[in-house]
Amino acid sequence: MMQFMLLFSRQGKLRLQKWYIAHPDKLKKKITRELITTILSRKPKMSSFLEWKELKIVYKRYASLYFCCAIEEDDNELLALEVIHRYVELLDKYFGSVCELDIIFNFEKAYFMLDELMVGGEVCETSKKNVLKAIASQDLLQEDEAVEGALREFGLY
Amino acid sequence: MALRKVKGNLERMFDKNLTDLVRGIRNNKETESKYIAQCMEEIKSELRQDNLAVKANAVAKLTYLQMLGYDISWAGFNIIEVMSSPKFTYKRIGYLAAAQCFHQDTEVLMLTTNMIRKDLNSQNMYDSGTALTGLACFISSDLARDLANDVMTLLTSTKPYLRKKSVLLLYKVFLKFPEALRPAFPRLKEKLEDPDPGVQSAAVNVICELARKNPKNYLSLAPVFFKLMTSSTNNWMLIKIIKLFGALTPLEPRLGKKLIEPLTNLIHSTSAMSLLYECINTVIAVLISISSGMPNHNASIQLCVQKLRILIEDSDQNLKYLGLLAMSKILKTHPKSVQAHKDLVLQCLDDKDESIRLRALDLLYGMVSKKTVMEIVRRLMTHMDRAEGTMYRDELLQKIILICSQNNFQYITNFEWYISVLVELCGMEGTQHGSLIASQLMDVAIRVVAVREFTVGQMALLLENAHVIVGPAAARSSIAEVLYAAAWICGEFSNLLSNPKASLEAMVRGKVVSLPGHIQAIYIHNMLKLYACIMAQAEEEDDTEMIEEITSLLQERLPLFVSSGDLEVQERASCILQLVNYVAKCHKAGDKVGTDLALLMSGELNPVAPKAQKKVPIPDG
User: Fold this and answer.
1) Do B164 and A127 touch (CB under 8 A)?
2) Helix or strand or coil: residue B49?
3) Which residues form the Clathrin/coatomer adaptor adaptin-like N-terminal domain (chain B) (predicted)?
């Protein structure tokens, strides 16, 4: 099971944090700080895996963002890399050539995308098409509500 | 009423939305904390409004601020308000905030039970889905207990979207409320045959996680999983099933035997690295657990080693790393199969990636044999020369010693060679393993009588060159510890020294006072041993010149130590100085004290086993 996923920039600014184990805030901050420092100090040619406390860390850099997740001792590292890659592909399809700014300004959408891909630290939907379909439907739901709301305001609903 | 509404709308027009907040923070980099403090105030006032849209906007902003490191737990109640909105848009925002900041001990969590239940049972699929996903992040034991049934009901929903999510959530429910497992399990098992492959996969996932914790209870499902494994082409699911089998085979060797063939086929046929890696790992685990003597045994191991070699030779760092990792597992039970690839592992020591080098080092430790130990150590020392000034160099040093000393020096045939290696290692500045080298020197000196003379000679050289060892970098390292060993060995086996007087002079030299206290103390004590040894010899030969020389040498130099800041050094130096003065007095009176002095040092010290103390009977009383 994946315990958490962090996205951060080359300057160490956190862009997304998804925790599948509910730690208290202080512990989350400590873990985040330590891990970001450790990963940013790794050189480009190094492998994507490292052992950290009792967890295995799998990370990969895409453009200016580091995608980093923590899996348990028994989990398959290569599979975790594929999950990260799948997530990036989904974001890319959704935002159309995704860049860091997209994730900064639409961070809640990034979370929603991740929530369709994984539930409780396990992969939920392996089909890219289905994930994007679900996101699109929920976006549509939101739009409908917004239109409805606006119409109500003007007494037209 | 209308006026109030218009006024309210005007005020609301100036509320920052999420984009405004993010942009604002980026535009205020120098005054970020002040700007955010201001935004927080605005958020607090927005949360006091009646309007749910406003509250939702505020909560969305809070979620962003939480990511920047600000505490938002004070807004728990507001978050719940937004979660309970009938509008999907706001509900989603509420659940996101909850997933980000609620945990087991969040007090307001107990207010959410009914609301979440309502959402789980909602007609709107996405309301339900949002609740399921959010719950997976913040579920507590109380929520698990109260909502278990509602989650289980969703297992039979008509929508696969919800069946998938509820299956996965069940795992979290079981973790927080284990009593739910027994009644839920039959329903979970049914999902293994769900018409939707995604739901099947989710069920496999959950059962795999459960089985890893408690494999015994899931052994009966093995046939079901076997069928799934041989019929599925979904790699994600295959990996989970194969991993599950890895957990089950230690309990049922017959299962292992049946698995070898399909796993071997997969290894041959798959192009997915993740699947290949999982299969290899499981084959290794299976072959470790079933007893040898099986006809296919060797062939399967050879296949794995062969495939791992391909991984290690790949230019992709990740594959290299994993290949080496898996090789280490094979090494434990089939060392011969791995030893054939010694050259490849030695090559990996040159890799730019430190984690790969460390993995290769680990492997080498187990690949050593009597014939290869010298060559391997030689290669490692070349690496040490190249790795100057790094932590890695120290790792290498430690590994060299571990390799040589393992199993009571099982692989060392030439101890003189080993002593020279240790002495060469003494030249490595900045090491943190000084005491390790020291203890090795002492170990060999005490236990390997055959090379003792050689060892003592080398140690005498070390003493004379102490100033080279304890160079400028010494402060940061523990290299001085080797002098501890050198002094002790020279003192204890002084009868083997070729020039005891020179060694004594080396010990009393001025620079010694800058060594750590415990080392000085050893020096002083062994000065006495050397003194006694030389004295005994000199008295026999009636060499009064020598006697006077060494006595006055000690009388001159010991006071330096007597005034040391270290108590132990002070004490020993004073004791020995008094002894030397007494000896000088005896000689003035014409008495010979050599043999008596030597008696002080007689008796061989033998190494004592760590458990020996227990064998000493406790005296009565």
Assistant:
1) no
2) coil
3) 32-581
In this predicted structure, what is the pLDDT of residue B16? Answer: 77
Residues of B in contact with A36 (CB under 8 A): none
Q: How confident is the model at residue A102 (pLDDT cuts 50, 70, 90)?
A: very high
Instruction: Flag if B198 and A126 touch (Cβ within 8 Å).
Output: yes
- For residue B5, what pLDDT is reported? 61
In the numeric block, the tokens 């102490």 are attached to B466
CB contact under 8 A, B126 and A141: yes
Cβ-contact B93, B17 below 8 angstroms: no
CB contact under 8 A, B198 and A125: yes
Q: How far from the centroid of its chain's Cα atoms is residue B432's Cα?
A: 18
Q: At what angle do helices B354-367 and B391-409 cross, to 10 degrees?
A: 10
Q: Quick one: what percent of chain B has pLDDT higher than 70? A: 91
Q: What average pLDDT does this structure show over B493-508?
A: 83
* Burial (CB count within 10 angstroms: exposed 0-12, middle 13-18, buried 19+), residue B604: exposed
Give A69's strand partners.
A5, A58
Buried b (16+ CB within 10 A) or exposed e, B142-164: ebbebbbebbbebbeeeebbbbb
How does residue B422 score in pLDDT terms, banded at 50, 70 and 90? confident
Distance CA B312, CA B328 (A): 12
Instruction: Decide: B542 and B582 in contact? Cβ < 8 Å.
Output: no
Which of A79, A105, A131 is the best substitution to test chain B (most B C-beta atoms within 10 A)?
A: A79
- Whether residue B220 contacts residue B207, with contact meaning beta carbons closer than 8 Å, is answered with no
Per mean pLDDT, which of A6-15, B225-234, B249-258, B557-566 is the most reliable?
A: A6-15
Summarised one tens digit per residue, pLDDT across range B119-165 is: 999 999 999 999 999 999 999 999 999 999 999 999 999 999 999 99
Of A23, A104, A141, the CB nearest to B22: A104
Task: Give the ranges where B2-112 is alpha helix by DSSP (H).
Answer: 2-13, 18-27, 32-47, 52-67, 76-83, 88-101
Instruction: Give ∠ CA B531-B534-B538 in degrees, rounded to 5.
Output: 130
What lies within 8 Å, CB to CB, of B275 at 6+ separation is B235, B238, B239, B242, B266
Q: Beta partners for A49?
A: A58
Rounded to the nearest 5°, which phi and psi values hold at A8? -145, 160
Considering only CA atoms, give the Rg of chain A: 18
Q: Is residue B594 within 8 Å of residue B535, measured between CB atoms? A: yes
Residue B509's SS3 state is: coil
B512-to-B231, B522, B560, B564 alpha-carbon distances in Å: 76, 11, 10, 11
Q: How far apart are CA A3 and CA A71, in angstroms?
A: 6
Question: What confidence score (pLDDT) does residue B75 get?
Answer: 93
pLDDT for the residue B434: 83
- Distance from B136 to chain A by nearest Cα, in Å? 5
ipTM of this model?
0.94
Q: A122 forms bridges with which residues in the sheet?
A: A119
Among residues B334, B54, B202, which one has the least CA distance to residue A1?
B202
Among B18, B92, B194, most A C-beta atoms within 10 A, so best to mutate, is: B92
Q: Which residues contact B459 (CB under 8 A, 6 or more apart)?
A: B441, B445, B485, B486, B489, B490
CB contacts, 8 Å: A76 with chain B: 239, 243, 274, 277-278
User: pLDDT-derived band of residue B89, with 50, 70 and 90 as boundaries?
Assistant: very high
Query: Is residue A18 helix, strand or coil?
Result: strand
State whether residue A49 is helix, strand or coil.
strand
- From A17, A47, A78, residue closest to B355, measured CB to CB: A47
Q: What would the pLDDT profile of B267-302 be if each residue is shown by its tens digit?
A: 888 888 899 999 998 888 887 776 555 555 677 888
